[in-house]
Amino acid sequence: MESTRFILINTSHAGNVGATARAMKVMGFGDLVLVAPRFPDVLCHEEAVAMASGAADILARARVVPTLAEALDGVDYACATAMTPRDFGPPTHEPRALFAELAARASAPRLALVFGSERYGMANEDVYRCHAVLSIPTHPDYGSLNLAQAVQLLAYDLRQAVGGFAVQARTPDPERADARAVQGLLEHLQAALTDIGYLDPAAPKKLMPRLNQLFNRAALTNEEVHILRGIARQISKTVDAAGSR
Q1: What subcellular locations does the record give (predicted)?
Q2: pLDDT tens for residues 28-79?
Q3: At a CB cut-off of 8 Å and minimum separation 6, what does 25 contact?
Q4: N or C: which end of the chain has fewer CB within 10 A?
Q5: Does residue 133 contact residue 91 with C-beta atoms inside 8 Å?
């Protein structure tokens, strides 16, 4: 299913072709076939290249063919995307459930996802060539999706069915402060709180142990310890300066 083919029939907007290429690439798919698009040179159209936004290689490898039959050559299982209910044709499935079922097979089929034109969707004759119809769950009062949006949703669901991608961390995990650093902070705070009269050394009660528990729950980083010690240092400096006036 990694080699799933995305087929666009009679596409009329070059931007949708480019956006489809981008949607495919971010989910790790690369086989794009256009069936009789409105513009024969759509793959190199300025708007298509602009909307591909880094997925120009998908456009460069894409093919344009005159018929759906040619686009489906080599495909084992074709899925139509059609909103309009039909009294005859392949069964309708929710995409995520069907993709999971296909991925679980001992030998996953070579899959094709077929999308109709922006204005008319898929013709009945094209739907009849497919093994299943996919219906993206949408609000019942308005289910009209942009072509590239539909491609993105199905590409995501398919990628999740075959294992998905791990989320890449954008920032390194902060270095946690060890027990020694926390104890140093507590000693520093104890002195500062004593300086401002908030803590009575003769009757400290459980203030410092409670702060200790608070810092343990917070899982302070070394940088946060430095910040809090800086605050404590400034408190003590301010008290000393006031007392020397």
Answers
A1: Cytoplasm
A2: 999 999 999 999 899 999 999 999 998 999 999 999 999 999 999 999 999 9
A3: 54, 55, 57, 58
A4: C
A5: yes
Report pTM: 0.74
Q: Which amino acid, residue 49?
A: V
Q: What is the CA radius of gyration of the chain?
A: 31
CA angle 61-49-43, nearest 5°? 45
User: Which amino acid would we find at residue 90?
Assistant: P
- Phi, psi (degrees; rounded to nearest 5) at 4: -55, 135
CA angle, residues 131, 136, 142, in degrees to nearest 5: 130
DSSP for 165-190 reads -PPPPSSPPPPBP-HHHHHHHHHHHH
Phi, then psi, of 227 in degrees rounded to 5 = -65, -45
How far, in Å, CA of 66 to CA of 229, rounded?
Answer: 72
The first and second tokens of residue 215, run together, are 């810092």
